[in-house]
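Internal tracking record. Fields below are filled automatically when a chain is submitted to the structure queue. Please do not edit lines marked as system-generated. If the sequence contains nonstandard residues, flag them in the REMARKS field before resubmitting.
Queue: standard
Priority: normal
Entity type: single polypeptide chain
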Amino acid sequence: MSRRSIEQFSPARLEAFLPSREFAFPRTLVEIVPQEIERKFLVAGDGWKSSVVRTARIRDGLVAILNGRKARVRIIGDRATIALKGQHEGLGRSEFEYPIPASDAEEILRTMCDDRVLGKVRNYVPHAGLTWEIDVYEGILKGVVIAEVELDRADRALQLPDWIGKEISGDVRYSKFNMEKAARRRARSRQ
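SYSTEM-GENERATED OUTPUT FOLLOWS
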């Protein structure tokens, strides 16, 4: 494509064809790619339990994983999503998550996730203006409890609740995939 034809399709020129002036084309890649920025921690004690405002039962299925990127299907209550996640860059990663029919999600979990389906109860706990998500795992990861908090930016100051333990953000040993793999290895060794 020549430079002239590229200029014909610049955001300013294309905006003239839009029915509403409320829409604006993104100016930078940061505006285009949704970012998930989160910090994860082990939980030290049960102090969080008295502050739970909502819970949700979740089933996550790992469809594919490659070089830190993954495709995941999730059923949470009666809703279902499929998510594509990029490699971690510090505390953040690109994430694209879309709703899908629950029946499709059930079929994907059954036919495409092999044994890589994890159950957990997510507990929502407000603290210092943020909502913490405390995941209590079931099944092969029973006994694992991890707290995470999503942030609007990586350098945001964070006031930690007193029930927070060691930070595990970026520690690959605590990825769901690696924890599940280690738990299955331990289970096989006991047989």
